[in-house]
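call fold(seq) -> tokens
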Amino acid sequence: MTRRYFGTDGIRGRANGVITPDLAMRVGMAAGILFRNGRHRHRVIIGKDTRLSGYMIENALVAGFTSVGMDVLVTGPIPTPAIAMLTRSMRCDLGVMISASHNQYDDNGIKLFGPDGYKLADETEVQIEALMDQDLSARLAGSADLGRASRVDGVRDRYIEFAKRTLPKNLSLSGLRVVVDGANGAGYRVAPEALWELGAEVFRIGDEPDGFNINREVGSTDVAALKGKVHECRADIGIALDGDADRVIIVDEHAEIIDGDQLMAVVATSWKEQNLLARDGIVASVMSNLGLERYLNGIGLELARSRVGDRYVVEHMRAHGYNVGGEQSGHIILSDFTTTGDGLVAALQVLAVVRRMSRPVSEVCHLFDPVPQVLRNFRYNGGQPLEDDRVKRAIAEATTKLDGSGRLVIRPSGTEPVIRVMGEGDNAALVEAVVNDIVDSLSKAA
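ret:
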């Protein structure tokens, strides 16, 4: 299935390069037409993160949706999972999040959610793309049927209350010292406010967005500042969100990183003990560490693997009845509560385990030793390097060398011109060598 605009997580690219006002308006028109079913007043809710280009894209989307007769509710900066939740709770026909997630400010993106709060299926995105490339002038609303746009207030408070209600009643975080890194992004206000309301002593970083500094030396992809703040404040835990707050990375009281694999292990173990797992296992992508799989097998749980991308994790969860899933990068999906990755909700679930066990985060959140894993990102300018015979030979030779003692995953990124090469196994030197060989072959082929 070839798609022109959509990648693994909506449409993403350089603002005013790939993501232009014209493209955003056509997305609004096409998606509005596709989801305009029935005679009721149709409406869409639009959120965004803190990028400067969000203003431009928001207005263009509003123009597109209202031109085909959809009413628009605009929220301002708010996390992606909040938009997913509000789409359902406010009975919207569509939800839209303007964000490029963990990318720098000069990129932006458009993520679409259906009325059920789930990201749209590939097939639906293909239908939207087909409409985007058509002349839609004959399908615009009449003058009396144009949509209306308004700003909706109180949505941050609604999301905070929703997140807090995912915890057991009467659970308090009183006495915990928590550093929250909002990535200068969509969660910069709601996450620290929720934690403070639950009783924690909160220290903030990454909470001064200016349109340009989202994810810049802060957030889940750059935790150096978070580590420093945890040491400085003698905190019990550090929590780092990404730009749209749908994923989280934690550091413990020693400022050691706890990735999504460890967080899934914590939740899976806790929920197994409480008989909360819908199935005896969880879902993770092919990038999750072999150590996680071995740990889960050791406690009687399976690890089902999906394609990379939280939407594909969710699809596998829904298709096979799992209620816990996620990615090593920190997308944690707990389908008892959410329809997409939610960094704040995941962090709260981990804090609930920490509180219940009354043990340091370093002990609670280190349940297995990861197998040595090497990940290299190869950026290319065009063409299809993976089709080169030299690259195919290098991959085949690497697979033979690992000979069942490890795993190899080579895949093109769905959001940028990058090929990701991951190898893992018990022999760290061998893994490093085979990954380097593949990257070297890619360099020669490019």
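The longest strand covers residues 418-425.
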